[in-house]
Every structure is written in structure tokens, then in C-alpha cells.
Amino acid sequence: MLRGSKIGLRARHEDDVPILQAELHDDVVNASRAEGGPWRPITHGSKDAPFVVDDKEQKHVSFSVVELDGGTLIGSANLWGIDNHNRFAHIGLGLLPPARGKGYGTDAVAVLCHYGFVVRGLHRLQIETLSDNAAMLRSAERNGFVREGVLRSSAWVMGEFLDEVLLGLLVKDWKPDSEG
Ligand SMILES: CC(C)(COP(=O)(O)OP(=O)(O)OC[C@H]1O[C@@H](n2cnc3c(N)ncnc32)[C@H](O)[C@@H]1OP(=O)(O)O)[C@@H](O)C(=O)NCCC(=O)NCCS
């Protein structure tokens, strides 16, 4: 397990999947905002369910987020689109509703940076998030990510086009204990 100050990132357990699906994917608004595609209902127990991990997929690493104190499951975190030539990857993160707003997201981004930069030797990490997602923007910026641009009307979400913000962090600018 990778440890931050409040959360840990561990492998996905089989019994995490239905909880993550019920709390994150089955919430149509949350999933439409976070998943970057059209929401559709997915049968629980399906091998194609969104939080089922394919360990053979080299471009994607999935973690479950747990509270360090007690080990309760609080969300899902991943590095996706891992590009070992250009040495960059994207960060994805979703916390269960009761776990939001407690500093866990900021800590999870810090641990994902440690994994990306130290364990994987990446050079750049990036995050794309909706421009009104204050908690995600702040979680990224507190870890040193900078806003590199606005992708205007790039996301079709529940009946309207929304802007996304692209944030990036280079390993040379990364301060492991950054509090931005
Ligand atoms: C986005 C998310 C991962 C952030 O994690 P979090 O644990 O809620 O965020 P934190 O508690 O670490 O807060 C980070 C900062 O945002 C602020 N913040 C938290 N929730 C906020 C809200 N609803 N509105 C405005 N600011 C908020 C905090 O005050 C904190 O700011 P500070 O560091 O200046 O004090 C989490 O809220 C989440 O999973 N949301 C739903 C899914 C999602 O949006 N995923 C991202 C898709 S790209």
C-alpha cells in the first residue's frame, strides 16, 4: 500500500467494486461529470463494470482509496493513459460522497504524484477537470499543479457543454510536501 498522511492507495478488492459502482457510477450526475462519456446503467456483477480492474492493462493503474485510520474504503484513484515514451500520465480520482471535503482528495493527489514520479519515473502528470470543480482544482493546485489552459466547451454534461481545465505538474517542480 502507498501511504499519505490520511489515506492509503491499495489494490482493488473484489468487494470494493459494488460499493464504488453504487456510490460513484450509479449517481448519474457524478458519473456524467467525472467519466467523460455518456452515462449508461451497468449491471452489477458484470465483468465490464466500471471499477473492475484488468491487471494486464499496462496503460492504466487502478487503486482503491482507503482511510489510513481503520482501512475504510473511501474511493477510487488511477493513473491512466500512461505513456512510457513521453513519460506522462493522467490522474483520475473519485471519492465516495461522505469522504469528500475532508482533505482526502488533496492527500490522494499527493500519493498519486509519488507513485507517478517516484515509482514510475514519469516526467509529467496532468489532470483534466470541469472548470466548476473547485475541490478537484484546489486538490491539484495544493500539490503544485498549474493551470495550463481551458478546453472550451469540451465536455457534454447533462444537456450542456462545459469547459474543462487542463492542469499539469512536471517532476522538476514537484515538492513532495507541497501545500500550495
Ligand atoms: C474532487 C475530489 C476528489 C476532491 O477531494 P476532496 O477530498 O473533496 O477535497 P479536499 O477536502 O482535499 O479539498 C481540497 C480543497 O478544495 C476545497 N473544497 C472542497 N470541497 C469543496 C467544494 N464543494 N466547493 C469548493 N471548495 C471545496 C477545500 O476547502 C480545499 O481547499 P483548501 O485546500 O484551500 O482548504 C472529491 O470532492 C470528489 O471525489 N468529488 C466527486 C468526483 C469528482 O469530481 N472527481 C474528479 C473528476 S476530475
Describe the 3D structure:
By secondary structure, the chain is α+β, with helices and mostly antiparallel strands. It has a domain at 2-123: Gcn5-related N-acetyltransferase (GNAT) (Aminopeptidase), CATH 3.40.630. The chain has helices at 17-25, 28-34, 104-119, 134-141, and strands at residues 2-3, 7-10, 61-67, 73-83, 88-95, 124-130, 146-157, 160-170. Strands 1-2-3-4-5-6-8-7 form an eight-stranded mixed sheet. Strand 7 and strand 8 form a beta hairpin. Helix 3 crosses helix 4. The longest helix is centred in the middle third of the chain and has 16 residues, at 104-119. It is globular and about 45 Å long. The model has no long low-confidence stretch (mean pLDDT 96). The structure holds coenzyme A. Coenzyme A binds at residues 30, 34, 93-95, 100-106, 129, 133-136, 138-139, 142. The site of coenzyme A has 20 residues, from helix 2, strand 5, helix 3 and helix 4. InterPro entries: Acyl_CoA_acyltransferase (IPR016181), GNAT_dom (IPR000182), Ribosomal_N-acetyltransferase (IPR051908). One of its GO terms (cellular component) is cytoplasm. GO terms for molecular function: protein N-terminal-serine acetyltransferase activity; protein-N-terminal-alanine acetyltransferase activity. It holds the Pfam family Acetyltransf_3.
Helix proportion: 10-25%
Radius of gyration: 16 Å
Number of strands: 8
Give the N-to-C terminal Cα separation.
Answer: 25 Å
Widest sheet, order of strands: 1-2-3-4-5-6-8-7
Unreliable stretches (pLDDT < 50, length at least 5) are none
Proper CATH architecture of the domain at 2-123: 3-Layer(aba) Sandwich
Keywords: Transferase
Domain N-acetyltransferase: 15-163
Organism: Streptomyces bathyalis
Protein name: GNAT family N-acetyltransferase
